[in-house]
Amino acid sequence: MGHDRRTLLGWLVGFAAAPAAAVAATPFDFVRRLLGGPQASPAAGAGAAVRHVTPDGEGNRDGLSWANAADARRLNELIEEAGPGGTILIAADRGRYTLQGSITLSHGGAAGRPVTIKGVNAVDGTDARAEIWGERADPFTASGETGAECFRFVRGADHLAFKNLHFRNIGNGCFRIGAPVQGLAIEDCTFRNVYRFIENTVSGEEADASLSEFVVRRCSGSSLERSFLRIRYRSNNGLIEDCRADSEGNEGDPFAVGCALEDAANTIIYRRCVMENFRQSAGEGAYWNADGFSDEWDNYEIRYEQCEARGATDAGFDCKSAYVVLQNCLAEDNKINIKIWSPRSTIEGCISRRPNWRGRGQENGGSSHFWYGHRPGIASRITNLIVEDENPTAVFWFEGPRVRVQVDGYALACHDEATLIAASEENPGGTVTFNPPTMAPASRRAPAIVAAGNGLRVQKGLWAANPRPSYAYQWRRNGAPIAGATQDSYAPAAADAGQALSVSVTARNSAGAATGTSQPFVHA
Fold first, then answer.
1. What CA–CA distances, in Å, run from 355 to 70, 234, 386?
2. Which residues of 295-313 are buried (b: 16+ CB within 10 A; e: fewer)?
3. What is the rounded end-to-end Cα distance, in angstroms, of the chain?
4. Please, are residues 343 and 375 in contact by the beta-carbon 8 Å criterion?
5. Residue 125: which region, alpha, beta or left (left: phi > 0; alpha: psi -120 to 50)?
6. pLDDT tens, 148-167?
7. Which residues pair with 351 in a beta bridge?
8. Which of 189, 156, 159, 157 is closest to 174 using CA atoms?
9. Which of 387, 372, 345 is nearest to 430 (CA)?
């Protein structure tokens, strides 16, 4: 079964770039809607039913025109009336929509013909964000009102497309999937002060709430307590693309995570998504959680493309799923930038910068660029890796036994005292194999001159090299070498007054040498 899963994901990813003729010929139309673009939320076609909504309704409130607009409480009925291919227009210029309890949806469209619910300007019909406000305390505090969810999806709410909505002060889900739902599209929505933007958990007596063939595109917001989304059960065939969420360091929930996959959710692609500042201050002696992205043991076929995770008190990417792929991703300013529990993983073209251990000296934890554990025999393939760090943070940390990491192509620009491979006391050992085994020095940040007491000191910059290089210095006056000035500090002489001083740093190892020169420093 594992082989079949990997084949399916490879086919899906390759399919996105397939010629138009090949796309049109496939029997899997949902893949075209998933990866192809505008089919996810088409405009109403000729003859399709249209309904209109304003905050309090107008006229006889049948929704057939702006003069007789319905109010938002009738949204489920309007979806049924509009039918497959229909459109619900939400007036964005008539004031905010005040949420009083959730809106349950049990009607939908049809495959290829969703019902589209979108915010517009009622005067000219152009796209505009309609504002939906809940009762969550703002700013939120632990003793404040948590707020209700907004849209709750139960059986029958399939093939719905939402667009141009702004949510404010909402509880556990601007969108709450409470039953099996197919063909959901959420696009161009924003939010502020919510517990979760998308929640996926059963409602009532349901035992399953799997979400299948879904798209979340161009959605963004800030001040989340728990997460941007949680996808669970056997949810599958999803694309989350061009989304961004900033928790703003909100520490109200102990297990905050930007994007969380659980249970057996599978065949999901994150593309160009950014998750920032999900944090927890658990106190002294505890482990500080909160991740940018996470997937769990029973997830599979999970792929991260050009995603970014920063500012988390635990991992930027916390990956447990089988055969996880990270491609061209950036992780920085997290306690552990990339955490891999998966038995097999592929990491391509990724950048790890400056881990930040916010709980240093207080929590039960540690910091590194990459962390592997706890299962024995983990194997990870890394290609074209870039690691940049001015601090002495470990590059690889092995928590599990017999970890094997192969690195093909790399630039390690690390502190001279950084540990390349660290391991727990229980770990009998692991290996990192570099190909090529050595790399000549290359400058990734130029040297600089800083004042130090009555003299000057060189900051040697950031160098990518393996093994670590040695350094030689040459101070210069107006570009010409100063005789005998070959240390990492320099005491200016009378002849240097008003002159442009610079310093050249040469880094050298067994594979070669390179020189970088600072910007001029005019000595007073």
1. 52, 33, 13
2. bbeebbbbbbbbbbbbbbb
3. 72
4. yes
5. left
6. 999 999 999 999 999 999 99
7. 330, 386
8. 189
9. 372
The whole-angstrom separation of Cα 251 and Cα 511 is 47
Residue with tokens 């190892």: 509
**How far, CA to CA in Å, does 361 sit from each of 119, 287, 352, 357, 420?**
49, 12, 23, 9, 22
Structure tokens at 4: 């079949």
Between CA 76 and CA 68 the distance in angstroms is: 17
As given in the structure block, the two tokens for residue 38 are 């505008």
The 10s digit of each residue's pLDDT in 376-421 is 889 999 999 999 999 999 999 998 888 999 999 999 999 989 999 8
Tell me: pLDDT of 321 over 80: yes
Q: What is the pLDDT of residues 461-485, one digit of tens each?
A: 999 999 989 999 999 999 999 999 9
3-state DSSP call for residue 142?
Answer: coil
Residue 124 burial (CB count, 10 A) = 8
Q: Using pLDDT thresholds of 50, 70 and 90, give the confidence band for residue 15.
A: very low
Phi, psi of 374 (to 5 degrees): -100, -10
Contact 225, 45 (CB under 8 A): no
Q: In this structure, which amino acid lies at residue 174? A: C
Identify the CA nearest to 213 among candidates 112, 141, 137, 300.
112
Of the candidates 74, 96, 89, the one whose C-alpha atom is nearest the C-alpha of residue 122 is 89
What is the C-alpha to C-alpha distance for residues 293 and 307, in angstroms, rounded to an integer?
A: 9
Residue 31 CA to residue 210 CA, distance in Å, equals 18
Which residue(s) pair with 455 in the sheet? 452
**Residue 173 pLDDT exceeds 60:** yes
